[in-house]
Design a protein that fits this description.
2 domains, single chain, alpha+beta, L,D-transpeptidase catalytic domain-like, 8-stranded mixed sheet, 5 helices
Length: about 250
């Protein structure tokens, strides 16, 4: 952005010239980034912006081609350090894709995932205490929000990553016990239309879970999981505001 008035190199006062140069530098680096509380599955989890420090350039997705909302949220997480030094997972429900980032917001891997069969961004209250046979098709949602995830075991003794323990929502290896559901096949198709099949849990390819997810939790007790909404906006879900595009970054 050009300044409205140029500073003459032969100004009669060295101090005036220095002030002018400072104004030009300040104008070139203008950046406005604010963060308001990030909404979790239950209440709010606050982001941590660093006053006085410009955010890093936009997150590098490499060869991946994320949707605009996924890129915008990843940039916001990196810029505000909302992950608080943890590795994090970003799940785009609309495109049935999971992105894994290290603690410095560098993309490590991505994969297709299977998600809850029902459209929606909230878990039904008390659903985690109900038998699966009593969960209606319309209640099989994968909740959106920010979650601090931990490794644990389900009732069958399988190691899983608990995303929302109270709602019994976890990330785990794809379940293939019911051949009629063709879950492994669904992960391999080019379309996302058949990726909605679970009761709300996030099913990952076995190789991806073993190679990447287990590696994350071998080094850290927790990680952050961000699940993008599909029925409301990013602002409504996470309370984030990007007032301008970052210098060298991406537009919202």
């Amino acid at each position: 952005m050009a300044a409205s008035r140029q500073c003459s190199a032969d100004s009669p006062s060295g101090r005036v010239a220095a002030i002018c140069r400072g104004l030009l530098a300040g104008t070139a680096g203008l950046l406005v980034l604010t963060a308001t509380p990030a909404q979790s599955g239950d209440r709010f989890a606050y982001g941590h912006s660093v006053p006085g420090k410009a955010a890093a350039p936009g997150v590098d997705f490499g060869a991946a081609a994320p949707a605009p909302d996924a890129r915008r949220l990843a940039d916001w997480i990196a810029g505000t350090r909302d992950n608080q030094g943890n590795a994090f997972f970003l799940i785009d429900k609309v495109h049935a894709t999971l992105y894994l980032f290290d603690r410095n917001a560098r993309l490590q891997a991505s994969t297709p995932v299977l998600l809850g069969a029902a459209l929606g961004d909230d878990s039904v209250p008390g659903i985690g205490a109900r038998p699966m046979a009593q969960i209606l098709p319309s209640e099989r949602t994968t909740p959106a929000g920010r979650f601090v995830a931990e490794v644990g075991r389900n009732l069958q003794g399988e190691d899983v990553v608990w995303v929302d323990h109270g709602a019994a929502v976890s990330m785990h290896r794809v379940r293939t016990g019911n051949p009629l559901e063709r879950r492994a096949e669904r992960l391999g198709t080019a379309t996302v239309d058949d990726n909605r099949i679970s009761y709300g849990c996030i099913n990952l390819p076995v190789a991806f879970y073993n190679q990447h997810v287990q590696t994350v939790f071998a080094a850290n007790r927790t990680a952050v999981v961000y699940v993008l909404p599909e029925t409301r906006s990013l602002q409504d879900q996470f309370g984030l505001h990007l007032l301008t595009a970052r210098v060298g970054g991406h537009s919202p």
